[in-house]
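Notes from hallway chat w/ T.B., transcribed later so I don't forget. T.B. wanted the structure written out for a chain they're using in a teaching module, and asked if we could keep both sequence and structure tokens in one place. Agreed to drop them here.
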Amino acid sequence: MTPADIEAIERATLGAVIPEAQEEADGWILPFDSGTVGRAKSAVPLRHAPPDAAMLPRIEAAYSARGLPPALRLPVLAPFESLRTTLAAQGYVEHTLTDVCTAAASRVAAVSEGPAAEVRDMPHDDWASVFLGEGFDPVDGASRVRKLSQGADTLFATIRDGEGPVAAGAAAFSHGWASVHGMRTAGHCRGQGLAGRVLATLAREAMRKGYPQVFLQVAADNAPAQALYRRAGFEKRWSYSYWRKP
């Protein structure tokens, strides 16, 4: 990953889950949001270089001024070890280790030969209903639907069975990258290859729109998703974790 790739991926991430407000300061984006989506409300560096020692107080002051708790999304890399140590010493808690992975869209498109998912360029009730189904946190699901629905250039993929919508996903397009978000499969339909069909469909749409590269972010402990993404050709580029005070 080049420095330009890293910055583009971070900007594209926030372009897909647009926060209520954001600021930039010394190579960081500070997004502010009252929802549940961590990426939309955690300060993140645009480059993988040692941060200025004064950055943490600036981040804390910016979030405090908006009545929000400070939060950071930090790469698990050597340049950030000093800041991570400082955060731990000040009572911040690390959680949700997440991998940033990239792949060629052409490789991802080949992960499934099953029927394509239905794709629309606007969010709709069938797509949103998958996030609100049994087994998913309804508050978090509603928040993610709102965030993904606000993207300026986003496609929404859905698969139905005889009972209704059972799998969904979205792809956003900005800063030279296609990004995959919100992959969901109803609990009673898992293991049937539906997520692979959604993923392949979104990758084909990326190629159609002229985006040869795809990225996604997946929890490090989500073994089924990790296995699917490896089969689709995704490779981990770096990991990050969130830091917040309890």
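Follow-up for T.B.: The domain at 102-238 is CATH 3.40.630.30 (Aminopeptidase). Might be a good example for the class.
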